[in-house]
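Postdoc handover notes: sequence design on the structure in folder B. Input tokens:
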């Protein structure tokens, strides 16, 4: 029996012993003991009742003590469970915080990686384009430096052709002119393979983006603003004009028609002009 149960039994016993004295015991009356006659059967019955009361009181005390102990243990277990739950919740919150931080760090790392990848792609494209541009500029510089040589060769061929007409019997001179012409044609062919195009706008409409007007002549039969003579041919490379053609432009003629009719109209005008000159 636990200490609580023993204490409870003692309290019940004290309550029982403090009850009025049964028959057969002396009673005090005004401070004087008065003898009382006691019946043996009655005393046995009362003693049995007292014993049963003690047993019942002990049972109640034990039951109450057990219930109190169970309640205390349940409270302790509940408190321990609550503490464990609180600790587990704290751990879960901490773990969730670490997970969120890891996710944010991973997202930041992914974003940095994407930015670096984009920067690298841009840098690679930019450097590749710069290499191409540098190569084109180098080729353009080389071609531009060769153009005066072509100009000199063309002027020499033209002058030699005129001289050959004056002295038709000089076969050696003709061979020399043919050799120079072959060298010129070969150089033009090589430049053409490198993307160089000749701008020879004779008879075309004047284009200020490709032509440089160095003279004007009145011609009522040709379209206004047409190229009547080419003093120096132009060149373009990769779609870019590297030298404008130096030309002579007409004025005083009819207006050029729309671009859709330009080719046919230009042909008709050229035919009419040729016929008028023959007349």
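Designed sequence:
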């Amino acid at each position: 029996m636990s200490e609580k149960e023993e204490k409870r039994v003692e309290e019940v016993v004290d309550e029982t012993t403090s009850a009025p004295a049964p028959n057969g015991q002396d009673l005090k009356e005004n401070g004087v003991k008065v003898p009382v006659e006691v019946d043996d059967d009655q005393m046995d019955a009362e003693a049995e009742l007292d014993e049963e009361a003690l047993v019942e009181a002990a049972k109640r005390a034990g039951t109450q003590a057990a219930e109190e102990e169970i309640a205390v243990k349940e409270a302790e277990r509940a408190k321990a469970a609550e503490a464990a739950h609180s600790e587990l919740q704290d751990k879960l919150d901490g773990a969730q915080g670490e997970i969120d931080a890891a996710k944010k760090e991973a997202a930041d790392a992914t974003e940095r990686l994407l930015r670096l990848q984009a920067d690298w792609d841009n840098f690679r494209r930019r450097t590749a384009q710069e290499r191409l541009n540098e190569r084109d500029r180098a080729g353009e510089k080389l071609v531009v430096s060769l153009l005066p040589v072509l100009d000199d060769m063309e002027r020499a061929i033209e002058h030699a052709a005129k001289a050959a007409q004056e002295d038709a019997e000089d076969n050696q001179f003709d061979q020399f002119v043919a050799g120079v012409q072959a060298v010129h044609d070969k150089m033009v062919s090589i430049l053409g393979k490198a993307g160089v195009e000749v701008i020879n706008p004779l008879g075309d409409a004047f284009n200020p983006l490709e032509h440089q007007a160095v003279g004007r002549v009145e011609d009522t039969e040709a379209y206004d603003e047409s190229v009547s003579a080419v003093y120096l041919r132009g060149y373009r490379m990769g779609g870019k004009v590297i030298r404008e053609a130096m030309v002579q432009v007409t004025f005083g003629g009819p207006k050029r028609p729309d671009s859709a009719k330009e080719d046919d109209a230009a042909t008709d005008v050229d035919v009419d002009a040729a016929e008028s000159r023959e007349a």
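Context for whoever picks this up: Strands lie at 27-29, 32-34, 196-199, 211-218, 227-232, 234-237, 240-243, 245-251. Don't rerun without checking with the PI first.
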